[in-house]
Amino acid sequence: MLKLQDINTFYGNIQALKGVSITIEKGEIVTLIGANGAGKSTTLMTLSGVVPPRSGEILFRDEPIQNLAPEKIVKMGICQVPEGRRIFPQMTVLENLEMGAFLRNDKDIIRQDIDMVMDYFPILAQRRNQLGGTLSGGEQQMLAISRGLMSRPEVLLLDEPSLGLAPIIIQQIFEIIRKINKEQLMTIFLVEQNAMQALKLADRGYVMETGRITLEDDADKLLDNEEVKKAYLGI
Amino acid sequence: MSFLDFDWEYFLLLFAGGLVKGSIYALIALGYTMVYGIIQLINFAHGEIYMIGAFVALMVSGVLTIYGFSGVSILVLAAIVAMIYAAAYGFTLERIAYRPLRGAPRLSPLISAIGMSLFLQNYVMLSQTPDFLRFPSLIPDFAFMEPIAHIINSVEVVILGTTVITMLGLTYLIKFTKVGKAMRATQQDMTMARLVGINSDRVISMTFVIGSVLAAIGGVLIASRLEQINFMIGFLAGVKAFTAAVLGGIGNIPGAVLGGLVLGLTESMAAGYISSAYEDVFAFGLLVLILTFRPAGLLGKAVKQKV
């Protein structure tokens, strides 16, 4: 459904992605793990059109999208929940959710979807009129995922949803991610440093090192892989 | 001097004058602050948009007078045409002078802005005239204003009323409309705004258009008060409005309005109680004071630079 082929992305003269190829099938949870600075977030920003690749091809439902502007890519059904959550701080929880539905015009169904995400994360209902900037880290992450869902994407790109959160909150958020995948058959591409959690959740995984994909396999096989254990799981 | 001896009438006169001046500053300051809020650019050519608004209004009112229109209807029609022209200028300005420099070092668009300012001034000087032109007085003296006309006249009341209506309209636009929400989102986090599907280029264009329309309204209003314009009026008004925006906290919309009013009142009081020769000294002295003690401006928040 989503396919990166030999993607090379640069920041000025510095090459951040070196021949990256990734395939994601419909309904899968695929994870991309790797150390800080490996190029994981760049992969997502390239997918979203914020940092277009210098060469290579990105196919979404067999259509090339690597030259499209970010808003076109959202419109096609690929939505990113970026690293650091990036909640609009001076907007209320409700307004943040409405921004997620920016490209939609079906007011009634947007209302229903707001109820739906508030079912996933009941705390957001309590906070609905609070400014985004005043939420805790965990609440912001929940809001960020919800805002992503509000665009009704076919593929949800999640960048480090566990970043800076307490273990119990991480657990909660990962369970919801699984639920969204099961209930809505949503395809999920999860970028994580928290390799253990991510591989437990995912169907398949990719390992990235300094801009290159070095390993790809089923998630449970990666969990057993000696190299992965040593480098990313701390076992 | 006891409380009762205080000349309240004189004070109110100065106060009304300050409010009128301040509301014009505020209208122009909004354009500076909105653009700055979104792309962190001081649009130095903004004062020229205001000047062009006044010139267009002058020409339109000239034509309409020939066709026998009268007073207020001329003013309204002239203002509408001026707003359309200013919007077109603002839109084009962003397209040719700033958009190609997106992603360039911050100094480049700033210099481009100064260049556009000089260009527009000289363009109007050469294509129109370097002399002052008389702007017709289009607002009649309303009969109901008679009892307080020695404190505030009809023109000033129209200016204040128009400003208040414009501000209310702008507040509604920014708070509740889709365009307004897109502007706020872009201001708070442009990358994230793009990731929810907002076309940031379009939002930036809209910001220039709205700012220019406000400047044109200011231009028409001030021209009908001063009753004369030339190609340089944008310069001082621009500097003052920019001061107002910085006073209030650049990038902050209510701040621009507050800054404009504070600046207008300060000038008016200084001119009335001290000397009109010192008007600008007090205006800019106030700026220095505020920047010393509250560098982010009255309503601005100190921005933490993330390293």
Notes on the protein architecture:
The complex is a heterodimer of chains A (235) and B (307). Chain A has 235 residues and is α/β, with parallel strands linked by helices. Chain A has two domains: 24-51 and 67-77 and 153-235, P-loop containing nucleotide triphosphate hydrolases (Rossmann fold); 88-151, no CATH class. Chain A contains ten helices and ten strands. In chain A, the strands form two sheets. A six-stranded mixed β-sheet of chain A has the order 6-7-8-3-9-10, sandwiched between helices. Chain A has a four-stranded antiparallel β-sheet with strand order 2-1-4-5, covered by helices on one side. The two termini of chain A are 34 Å apart. The model of chain B has no long low-confidence stretch (mean pLDDT 91). Chain B is built from eleven helices and two strands, in the order H-H-H-H-E-H-H-H-H-E-H-H-H. Chain B is globular, with a radius of gyration of 20 Å. Chain B has a two-stranded antiparallel sheet with strand order 1-2. Chain B has one domain (18-232). Chain B has 307 residues and is an all-alpha fold. Chain B has helices spanning 8-39, 46-66, 71-98, 107-127, 154-176, 178-188, 190-195, 200-226, 233-248, 253-273, 279-293; strands spanning 133-134, 228-229. Chain A binds chain B through residues 48, 50, 69-71, 74-75, 79-80, 82, 86, 88-91, 95, 98-100, 102-103, 147, 151, and chain B through 178, 181-182, 184-185, 188-189, 191-199.
